[in-house]
Amino acid sequence: MLTRQLFILGSLGILLSGFTGCNKSGGDTILIGEFASLTGKEATFGTSSHEGTLLAIKEINAAGGVLGKQLELKTEDDQSKAGEPANVVNKLISKDGVVAILGEVASSRSLEAAPICQENGIPMITPASTNPKVTETGDYIFRVCFIDPFQGTVMANFALNTLKAKKVAVFTDVKSDYSKGLAKFFKEGFTKAGGQIVSELDFNGGDKDFKGQLTAIKSAAPDAVFIPGYYTDVALICIQAKQLGLNVPLIGGDGWESDKLVELGGAAVEGHYFSTHYAADAASPKVTAFVESYKKEYKGKVPDCMAALGYDSVYFLVDAIKRANGTEPAKLRDALAGTKEFDAVTGKVAINAQRDAVKSAVILQIKDGKFKFLETVNP
Amino acid sequence: MDWFLQQLINGLALGSIYALIALGYTMVYGVLRFINFAHSDVLMLGAFSAYFLAPAVEKILPLPSIAGALIVVLLSAMICAGIGMLIEFLAYRPLRSRPKLTVLITAIGVSLFIEFTCQHPAVLGADTKPFPKLLTENDLHFGGLVIGSNDLVIVGTTLVLLASLWFVVQRTKIGTAMRAVSFNQQAAALMGININRIISFTFGLGSALAAVAGILYAIKAPGIDPLMGVQPGLRAFVAAVLGGIGNLPGAALGGLILGLVETYAGGTPGLSNYRDGIAFAILILILLFKPAGLLGKATVEKV
In this protein, which residues make up the domain named Leucine-binding protein (chain A) (predicted)? Predict the structure, then answer.
């Protein structure tokens, strides 16, 4: 009997805490929500974008805030796990009462959170989710990065024109919307430009043995292999490809960009190529200034593209808050959608009718354990 | 032809790992008649023990080297044997007189407990860590075929451990006691066998095997994380059931079959997406038509 009473009391408590927590925003701070993979499989992505976000918030607050108010960031960790984004984003909106949501790097998890933000009419800005479906969810969802059709086409042209590859194999992570999207647009672009896809194989993100698939790829004798995946899997794939004597260029997308790729893959990842959002060694004053302040903040660490995009997402939001002259969701949404020329670290951003950022990409090569800038590709 | 032979090599190397893990599952089942689901997590702890031990060992013995690798493996196996005995003592022993289902559920609980505790940033953290090089790699080339030295080490270790395990169980006094406990615990106790000691020993041995398997798995794919045991653990469990659970050669055979099926399916365009489905379909078919597994003898289950 006692246990039942306790149970009822407990559930009442939970309900009450849910009601009273509403809308802490207002007053002299603007509360922004962030969900990120701070732990788990894509933790280095999540942490990087989170660090970029924090740096931007700190800079803006130090410069006097926005519209006379200080920014406050509420961060939730979704552990790189499906199911978690829905939980934490619901909490950020209904309990904490944030005015906008920043996140996630991974498309699969942004896709999970987007409908919730859309339903609640809270603008969501993803720093690095490149799958087109993310912004198709609704008119409250934005991104500051380019999309997979562009990145896929960039890599298709790169394979064909720079690497002179005529026959390419594609190795896709079937568990990831990002990987599947990128593979699809790479294949379309590559065949349209006259190339040939000689072999298509799949893996599951988190697998450790890829030799079965890689042997099949090797026997198809491609000139290059396109692997749209995340760094942990890609590192192991590169190691096993090298063991099997598959000595052709391996190419991929922005999912590769992490120091972990080199740390795990070592010599096996040397010489391979990937496309991404920005290069820390590119010589634009905006980039140099960002790299300097990031290094100062995080003990000399060189920011990767996720950090730059996290940083950009905050400034992008703040730019819109200024133009909307407040944080009223509908006005903020319109201001975000009306962004025509926003000067970001990762390039000039214009928001198109699909709420995607139109901007350029860069191609990097892994050389001596570092990412070397190779070329910039405009849309 | 190259494709076929190379896949055979890949499949045997992968299958040997599954076989090695399955040996631990099947041995504990053989003695206690229950599946120790925490086995795959002990495997992960084995890999992490080696990850932390390697830098310490390197100060005395150079790594990569055979001697250094052996020391790391032995120490990790000892640590994991201790962990295995501790798990048995804390989680399974108090429930020994309860229904088998209770112990089974506890085993799942222990497994999840280890996985999620270890994912906490203060314990191991959830991100993937690079596994140190324990052995130098020399790949052997035969025409277009490649045999990795690591793969040979894995196959060799599995064979040696299978043989020594078989020897321990069939030819030694403690092995006889294990079989007696497996046959009838009460009767074995009446014959003067210290049941607790035998079960503790079984868990220790099984966990040491898991540690070895974990390290070999990490050598094969040098990125380790707290959830690394889940997938191979599941495969090894399937392998143990496929071969006839409780049967040592059966576990090895099951592991090899599973490794080969997974590799051939994975290497066939269009099928690579379905390799798990194919592996489990085989399991279901075996259970339908030969419920005791390939090498198992049909017995009446007393549960």
Answer: 30-369
For residue A292, what pLDDT band results from cuts at 50, 70 and 90?
Answer: very high
Distance from CA of A25 to the nearest CA of B (A): 30
Instruction: Look at residue A11 in the predicted model and tell me its pLDDT.
Output: 53
First to last CA, chain A: 68
Q: Does B2 touch chain A (CB under 8 A)?
A: yes
A239 and A133 assigned to the same domain: no
**Same-domain status, A260 and A314:** no
Q: What is the ipTM of this complex?
A: 0.89
The strand pairing partners of B223, in sequence order, are: B130
pLDDT interval class at B273 (50, 70, 90) = confident
The answer to whether residue B58 neighbours chain A at the CB level (below 8 Å) is no
Q: Does the pLDDT of residue B299 top 70, yes or no?
A: no
Task: Give per-residue pLDDT as tens, A35-66.
Answer: 999 887 788 889 999 999 999 999 999 999 99
Tell me whether residue A152 is in a domain. Answer: yes
CB contact under 8 A, B269 and A201: yes
Q: Please, which residues bridge with residue B224 across strands?
A: B129
Alpha carbon of B244: minimum distance to chain A alpha carbons (Å): 25
Q: Looking at the partner chain, which of B13, B221, B272 has a beta carbon nearest the beta carbon of A201?
A: B272
Unique residue bearing structure tokens 């790949």? B139
Same domain, A229 and A323: no
Tell me the per-residue pLDDT of B130-159, one tens digit each, with 9 for 90 and over: 999 999 888 888 888 889 898 899 999 999
Q: Is the confidence at residue A20, as pLDDT, over 50? A: no
Q: Is residue A364 part of a domain?
A: no
Residues A31 and A99 in one domain: yes
B267 to chain A: which residues are within 8 Å by CB?
201, 212-213, 215-216
Label each residue of A2-26 as H, E or C: HHHHHHHHHHHHHHHHHHHCCCCCE
Return the CATH number at A192: 3.40.50.2300
Domain that holds residue A78: 10-145+284-359
Q: Do the domain assignments include residue A38?
A: yes
Domain count within chain A: 2
In a domain, A365, yes or no: no
Please give the Cα distance from B225 to A205 (Å, whole number).
13
Per-residue pLDDT, A17 = 47
What CA–CA distance (Å, rounded) separates A215 from B158? Answer: 24
